[in-house]
Write a structure and sequence with these properties.
Elements lengths: L2 H14 L3 E3 L1 H9 L5 E4 L5 H13 L4 E2 L4 H8 L5 E4 L2 H12 L1
Parallel strand pairs: 2-3
Antiparallel strand pairs: 1-4, 2-4
Helix pairs in contact: 1-4, 1-5, 2-3
């Protein structure tokens, strides 16, 4: 299994564990209230959306993964969204570790 596949599997698992927030508005709120531990932004998101989330995540010191397309994220998470926030430290740490190896 590739690191990308492993990370996407964990994304789906985090949804079933209810440790995931889907959508731009809710994810932005999660970053602001510091409940987001990791943010996924689709690589084919619009430039305005991507910049807004990159900037906000950087200012709140939240890691960002923008490797996956909307189609890959949607298939893994089961929602049609561009941005996902992971609210569990364990899931977030494992996903970051997988993607940085």
């Amino acid at each position: 299994m590739t690191p990308n596949e492993a990370c996407l599997n964990l994304l789906g698992l985090s949804r079933r564990a209810k440790k995931q927030i889907a959508g731009e508005g809710l994810s932005l709120a999660a970053i602001r209230n510091q409940s987001a531990k990791l943010v996924f932004i689709a690589s084919d998101a619009g430039p305005t959306t991507a910049k807004k989330f990159h900037d906000k995540a950087q200012s709140y010191d939240v890691p960002v993964i923008d490797t996956f397309t909307k189609a890959e994220l949607n298939a893994a998470a089961g929602n049609k969204r561009t941005v996902y926030a992971i609210t569990d430290r364990g899931f977030a740490d494992k996903m970051v570790a997988i993607m940085t190896n």
